[in-house]
Design a protein that fits this description.
The complex is a heterodimer of chains A (391) and B (152). With 391 residues, chain A is an alpha+beta fold. Chain A folds into 2 domains: 109 residues, no CATH class; 232 residues, Methylamine Dehydrogenase, Chain H (7 Propeller), CATH 2.130.10.30. In chain A, α8 packs parallel to α9. The longest helix of chain A is centred in the first third of the chain and has 19 residues. In chain B, the strands form 3 sheets. In chain B, strands 1-2-3-4 form a 4-stranded antiparallel beta sheet, with no helix packed on it. In chain B, strands 5-6-7-8 form a 4-stranded antiparallel beta sheet, with no helix packed on it. By secondary structure, chain B is mainly β. In chain B, a hairpin with a 3-residue loop joins β9 and β10. The chains are: A alpha+beta (391), B mainly beta (152).
Chain lengths: 391, 152
């Protein structure tokens, strides 16, 4: 009797919902979906496998059997790492589909509890979630994961070594330097009265002008230095000839100076050939610095006009615009980038081009100004797992 | 990935280290045109690595530091002032420190242990390293690197 009246009540509510669904806000729609999911799961038959084997249900099945609202509570208690693992391993909880060509109501697509939880966390971090996926992102879950876990995913580099200086990021995220500056080198980042005087700092000392910045990574070529803040800003200093500092005037900087055009940067690199690189949060690779010889590949990833000897300000590598770069390393006249597809790219001169010991003729990439694609060594299964559409 | 002036290293998710390029520090002792596993580290899961100029370093899952270069400068490898090392070799004398991050350089090297305490060796009068053979502990505690991605 009770069951019949409950069913009748459900039907009445469903009719009301049908009539009122158009007036729901996005949040209300999501909430309604969660309730409906819970209801549907309530009436699912027990899984056949578990019933036949009479075995303990797999923990994943247990999760799936939970009403969605309860599941949300469970997920909200998971740490970021476990949530990420769940997102990778459990497509059932993910329920994301590749972004379709225009869909009338993008927010009404089925959304799994993992995605819901990720959205909650991203919003809780004070970040805005865009209405449609940005170009280059295939799925919501990895996109959200990247934002929800941004601090955890970024590869932080707290130490860097130049010829005569050392850079540190300490436990309070302050930038420290020590070492010796020959006249004009300006590698220590401390303001000095006379830049032409040699200077020695004997033990790691915080850089005064950066006291209020939260620094996460440092890099140096031995001739110039870069620091990355937690907010994704890049600072450069040193003897900035050849454009390695990324400032339009091409001049030196005694104290760290922000490269204004770079925002939301996730990793930085400085190379021996006085080049610099940065990767932003959507995987765009920017390079700048010295092009040793305009007629030869320069490791920047694009060709420069013959009369220009260096790229003064950060420029994005257009040849990789279709790819999502996740890591970069700079050598002397070459540049390596890893994309999320797991392929590695070699930009500029081939690795042996300038080697004195190689006893070989210089080898260049097929087209030195374009990345040379090399599949293999950089492949990384988890990246493929998470950034590949589920079907 | 990491790159020196004329060589490069790549580390896979599985902890396999590949080296190629110039012979001085690619880990093979001879020129390699394409990435090859660094033989001396096969069987050990590599967690981090760094390369710069003509030197390379790697940290294994036992948190042991390995360095190599055929051109040693001022004990930047930590094996002694005059011991070039074309293939990877474990750095002794770290006092059992569990290394959590490393930055190798052409003249000196920094390594931080799990607690962020920085060990330095190699040339640098500015770092107060009088004895080039010795390891020094610097007065700084570095931020712990979140090198470990949130995926297993």
């Amino acid at each position: 009797m009770a069951a019949a009246s409950i069913l009748a009540a459900l039907r009445a509510v469903a009719t009301q919902c049908h009539a009122a669904a158009w007036s729901f806000t996005d949040e209300q729609a999501a909430e309604g979906r969660a309730v409906a999911d819970g209801l549907r799961d309530l009436f699912l038959p027990p899984p056949a496998a578990a019933a036949s084997a009479m075995a303990q249900p797999h923990s994943l099945q247990l999760l799936q059997l939970l009403p969605t609202e309860l599941l949300s509570v469970v997920l909200s208690h998971l740490d970021a790492h476990d949530l990420a693992c769940l997102a990778v391993t459990c497509r059932a909880l993910w329920r994301d589909t590749p972004t379709p060509p225009p869909r009338p109501m993008p927010l009404l697509r089925p959304m799994g509890p993992v995605e819901t939880e990720l959205r909650r966390r991203v919003t809780a971090r004070g970040l805005c979630i865009v209405a449609t996926l940005p170009k280059g992102a295939l799925l919501w879950v990895p996109y959200l994961l990247k934002h929800a876990l941004r601090d955890a995913m970024r590869r932080e580099v707290p130490l860097a070594v130049g010829a005569e200086v050392s850079l540190f990021v300490d436990a309070e995220s302050r930038l420290l330097t020590c070492g010796s500056d020959d006249p004009g080198e300006l590698m220590l980042g401390h303001d000095c009265i006379d830049p032409d005087e040699p200077r020695i700092i004997g033990s790691p000392t915080p850089v005064p002008s950066m006291q209020d910045r939260r620094i996460v990574s440092v890099a140096t070529s031995g001739k110039h230095c870069l620091a990355l803040s937690a907010e994704g800003e890049v600072y450069s200093w040193g003897n900035g000839t050849d454009g390695s500092l990324g400032h339009a005037d091409g001049g030196p900087r005694a104290v760290p100076s922000r490269i204004e055009s770079l925002i939301q940067i996730e990793s930085i690199a400085a190379g021996g050939g006085l080049t610099s690189a940065a990767v932003d949060e959507v995987g765009r690779l920017f390079t700048w610095g010295r092009a040793t010889d305009a007629t030869r590949p320069n490791g920047l990833g694009y060709a420069l006009d013959s009369e220009i000897e260096s790229q003064l300000t950060p420029k994005s590598v257009e040849a990789l615009s279709e790819d999502r770069v996740v890591g970069v390393a700079l050598g002397y006249g070459f540049n390596l980038a890893v994309t999320d597809a797991g392929a590695s790219f070699l930009v500029g001169t081939a690795i042996l081009a300038l080697s004195a010991t190689a006893r070989m003729r210089p080898r260049y990439c097929p087209d030195g100004s374009k990345p040379w694609r090399k599949q293999g060594a950089g492949s990384s299964p988890w990246l493929q797992a998470i950034f590949t559409p589920s079907r | 990935m990491a790159a020196g002036d004329f060589h490069a290293l790549a580390l896979t998710e599985e902890g396999e280290l590949y080296g190629w390029g110039d012979a001085s520090a690619n880990g093979h002792g001879r020129v390699k045109l394409t990435p090859r596993r660094v033989a001396a580290l096969i069987g050990q899961r590599v967690q981090l690595m760094d390369a710069r100029h003509d030197a390379s370093s790697a940290v294994t899952e036992k948190d042991e530091l390995f360095t190599w270069s055929s051109d040693v400068s001022y004990n930047n490898l930590g094996h002694g002032v005059d011991t070039p090392q074309a293939t990877s070799k474990r750095v002794e004398g770290l006092g059992g420190a569990r290394i959590a991050s490393v930055a190798i350089g052409g003249y000196h090297t920094l390594a931080a242990d799990e607690d962020g305490v920085v060990l330095a060796f190699g040339w640098s009068s500015a770092l107060g390293l009088d004895d080039q053979d010795a390891m020094s502990t610097l007065r700084v505690r570095v931020r712990k690197s979140s090198d470990v991605l949130p995926f297993r």
